[in-house]
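Sanity check record (used in CI):
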Amino acid sequence: MMSFRSKDAHAQTRLNWPWRSQSPLSAQLLVDIPPEIELSDYRRLPSSRSESPSGLLHDEGVKEEPIPDLDIFFERLYEYFCAKGLRCIITKWIIEILNVLFMVCCIGFFFLFVDWDTLIHLKCGVEALESGEKPCDLMKAIKHDPLVPFTLPKMITVGSMVIMTAYGLTNFLKFFVQLRSTLNVRQFYYDRLKVNDLEIQTISWPKIIEKVVLLQKSQKLCVVRDLSEHDIIMRIMRKENYLIGMVNKGILSFPIHSCVPGAGPTGSHEHGRRNYLILPKSLEWTLNWCIFQSMFDSKFCVRKEFLTSPDVLRKRLIFVGIAMLILSPCLVIFPLVYVILRHAEEIYNHPSTASSRRWSNLSRWIFREYNEVDHFFRHRMNNSAVHSLNYLKQFPTPLVSIMAKFVSFVSGGLAGALIIIGFVGESILEGHIFGRNLLWYTIVFGTIAAISRKVVADELQVFDPEGAMCLAVHQTHYMPKRWRGKENSELVRREFETLFPYTIIMLLEEMASIFITPYLLISEVPKTSQYM
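Expected output for Autophagy-related protein 9:
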């Protein structure tokens, strides 16, 4: 097992780390033989098409439709809790639509309407006065016929705008489709759980589950058997548990090079060759659409044909991979524009954020426990970030640190000198050196100084990689056997860093994954379809 959830009793005693008991679903997902039965222990009554009788969520005197499926109902119950009420749901929906509209407008404006050649050579301000030209007119950099001539880059841009618009329209319609069920869940919170939208913003999730279990005893949400807290969570986490099991079993480890963007720790060995785990966002989305959207039937049981006909899944994966390969030039524009809109201003005002770290998408599925709901998991990951960063600081690079100190000293000194000059005379910063004004140099030197300072090793850092790793593991719950006793080795540091990369590196890897995912879907993932 590559997970921290191991049965090594000696290691458990020696490290004295908390262990969690495996659920029945956990044990089933980790066996070598694929499951041949449904993942649910619940059966509907033969004489009914629903687990809940009519009038279950309302007073006995009111005739209402029963809950069609408790799995979907509990999922939406949790989603409503995370969204913190109907007003937040509506506001979030409106903001998402506006965000999509804003991104489509930005893609169209900057990639189609702006004439970048004209804009670069446009002279404004003091530069225009010195050259004797008229003040610049920015409208000269706007194309009046943006689609003429209709070149390949413009076709890709238009294609990305069409895909983004279709995505926004789908979310727009999806909200109205789910609005009725959302209102039913809201009524359930108000009438049965006695929790209004104001209270849901501060109440804890265990308290909500406790209320649901007490309600089950009096009104029988499930007529087949009583529901416990564990039963409800298993229903909510049904799909996520399956993906956690795929990662833990090494099904998503492929014979790729360790330098492939997004490649994580070693997952398995086949024919003397190492397989590396990889799960970028794009691959997760495609697996969710190809597998989990068609894996379960209306009763949330695994379809028989899904187990007996792996060729159907293999063909679906290849088809989606080919379609994604064709659309990849259009799809890569989305993360590119998002990175610019989301992080450009942050990096400009706080350059040190470029050297910050965050957990990769793969690490979130490696570290996640079975039946661990999302907001508890995010809380655990946020708590682990400080300890994980401290562990990576246990491996200083003296040569890089020495050079970073010099760069920081020189660039910071030049930026400070230019700021002092600005206080003496503000107009002096408008002077030009090598075609650039002094204000431009001030910004560049300040940015270089801020980034280089983050690279310099802390002189007060205490070297204790074993202790730092122990603190990190208490939160991540991940400690492969190959890491134990080797916390100060370069191998462990390198694998740990793939799970906790620099933010800018992770963003670039997500953009590169749009081209890597089609290759995986066409050539590698179909080979493992029989194990899914």
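The first helix runs from residue 9 to 15. If this sentence no longer matches the regenerated tokens, the check is flagged for review.
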